[in-house]
Write a structure and sequence with these properties.
Elements lengths: L1 H13 L3 H21 L4 H29 L8 E7 L13 E8 L5 H15 L6 E5 L4
Parallel strand pairs: 2-3
Antiparallel strand pairs: 1-2
């Protein structure tokens, strides 16, 4: 085994400018370690991001529940389910909550054009959302 290392050392020593090559490799390793640590987020930022995701998730769930509750009170709407999508590029550093990007509502009474229109109008009023970002679908009658 030591004979292998001796032969390897002799081969390396016979290479011209081995010191320069090793110095360049060493320098590249140092740069690689520096940039990998420089571009990774600090632990407190990772924790803050996780906390922000929890806050956003709780916010979305609360708005969905409240919206489903109020929309189900529209005459003829029946059972209502709501799914909200928020803007992806959301920063919560200033404690502002994310903007609603789009919404899907599944309502038993959505086959009635007037009920569907009332649901869309209510969402537009409550969330200041364009009707092009609102989809109201017919739900099961079960």
């Amino acid at each position: 085994m030591s004979n292998v290392f001796v032969n390897l050392f002799k081969k390396l020593k016979s290479i011209k400018h081995i010191e320069i090559i090793l110095a360049i490799l060493f320098g590249l390793i140092i740069l690689l370690v520096y940039f990998s640590s420089a571009f990774s987020a600090p632990d407190n930022v990772k924790t803050k991001t996780g906390e922000n995701a929890t806050i956003v998730s709780a916010y979305i769930t609360e708005v969905e529940d409240k919206l489903a509750n109020i929309l189900s009170k529209i005459n003829g709407a029946g059972n209502v389910s709501v799914m909200i999508m928020v803007e992806e590029e959301t920063e919560l550093e200033t404690a502002t909550l994310p903007s609603v990007a789009s919404i899907i509502v599944v309502a038993q009474g959505a086959s009635n054009v007037w009920v569907k229109l009332e649901i869309i109008k209510a969402i537009e009023a409550l969330l200041k959302l364009s009707s092009s970002n609102i989809e109201v679908l017919i739900g099961n009658s079960s």
